From TrEMBL:
Localization of this protein: Endoplasmic reticulum membrane
BP terms from Gene Ontology: GPI anchor biosynthetic process
Name of this chain's protein: GPI mannosyltransferase 2
Described function: Mannosyltransferase involved in glycosylphosphatidylinositol-anchor biosynthesis.
Source organism per UniProt: Seriola lalandi dorsalis
Keyword Transferase (UniProt): yes
Length: 372
């Protein structure tokens, strides 16, 4: 382990401990905001240490983090649960049933899941820091910048999401690791890592862009070399082979990365469009919550939802449209002005950084960095 990696790990460990300490203190000192968020009822009896763990780590389960805990404990029951992809709940449940199983006499499943959030996210964050540092060393080709970027990542304003029960730390570790493998030329292994990242978050599909870019860069570089080193029919053969290899790599890699997303959408379709569950098998408290809040649950005796009749029945798109009101320009409303003001400092810094880079490397940007 190099000195830089050790320094990054030590700093990341300190920031994780500080984040957990602050969330415990602030969770105890500041009353929760009574938002209309997902609050499923508890259906199991609390054990000896549950109240203490809830007091210490309850802040890790606020807002959408409650969905991950519910899925890890109960599985996918409500329609809008399918907005949250399955890898992170599987990791939490795996930790709760293996590493934390000796605590089952003192902690319920939920209590062990909260501990799994604290331990799992801290470990995953450390992995993501190491992966980011390794990636930065390759891309930036500057030891000091790689170290600085990794340290700044540890104090990102999004720190709360890296610590709480969200899938950000898991997704970051897999994405940085996959991009590192892609930069090193291990394309298939990179696609596997990025595919697993898609099983953690839907925006893992964006990583397909990196897969398309780097092989394109490599193919163009090869073609430019062939243009000056080969002649005649051999040159044409090399051109065709470079293009065919690029197309095969892009198609196969895209299929691998997108596979978890497609499989999960198929699972959602089977759950609600061809259900095999009756309402009698659902806990009465959870069914009562669904009736009060208007949550849809699978029912083999009920009619299928309307989105099942669409030409492309994607449950994720339906959730974004109906539950989150996501659509073109829908967010631009007067009531969202406070959120725009809140985001303005970071947006301004990002725009200034992009503009400064373009000013310094305008020709490279106009060529998208694909050729000299």
């Amino acid at each position: 382990m190099t000195m830089d990696v050790r320094a990054v790990l030590e700093f990341a460990t300190v920031t994780r401990g500080l984040s957990l300490f602050l969330q415990a203190v602030l969770n105890a000192a500041i009353p929760d905001h009574e938002a209309d968020a997902f609050r499923p009822p508890r259906t199991e009896e609390p054990l000896y240490l549950d109240s203490a763990v809830e007091w210490l780590l309850g802040g890790l389960s606020h807002w959408d983090a409650e969905h991950f805990l519910f899925i890890a404990e109960r599985g996918y029951l409500y329609e809008h649960n399918f907005a949250f992809f399955p890898l992170y709940p599987v990791v939490l449940r795996g930790l709760a049933e293996t590493l934390l199983w000796p605590l089952s006499c003192w902690l319920s499943v939920r209590g062990r899941l909260l501990v799994a959030v604290a331990l799992g996210n801290s470990a995953l964050f450390l992995l993501s820091v190491v992966a980011l540092h390794a990636l930065s060393r390759i891309v930036l080709q500057d030891r000091r910048l790689a170290l600085l970027s990794s340290l700044l990542y540890c104090i990102t304003p999004a720190n709360v999401f890296m610590t709480a029960g969200y899938s950000e730390s898991l997704f970051a570790a897999l994405t940085f690791g996959g991009l590192f493998l892609l930069e090193k030329g291990f394309t298939f292994r990179a696609c596997l890592a990025l595919s697993i990242a898609t099983a953690a978050r839907s925006n893992g599909l964006v990583n397909i862009g990196f897969l398309l870019y780097l092989p394109s860069l490599h193919a163009i570089s090869q073609i430019r070399v062939y243009r000056t080193t080969t002649k005649g029919h051999i040159k044409v053969f090399h051109y065709i082979w470079a293009i065919i290899r690029l197309l095969l790599t892009s198609l196969l890699g895209t299929a691998i990365i997108a596979l978890p997303f497609c499989a999960f959408q198929y699972y959602g379709y089977r759950t609600f469009c061809t259900p095999s569950v009756s309402l009698e098998r659902i806990h009465p408290a959870l069914l009562s919550l669904a009736e009060r809040k208007g949550y849809r649950v699978p029912d083999e005796n009920g009619p299928p939802p309307l989105w099942c009749m669409r030409p492309l029945p994607l449950l994720y798109s339906h959730i974004q449209d109906v539950y989150w009101d996501v659509g073109f320009l829908r967010y631009f409303e007067l009531k969202q002005i406070p959120n725009f003001i809140l985001a303005l400092p970071m947006a301004t810094l990002g725009i200034m950084a992009a503009y400064a880079y373009f000013q310094a490397n305008s020709e490279l940007c106009l060529r998208l960095g694909l050729w000299e």
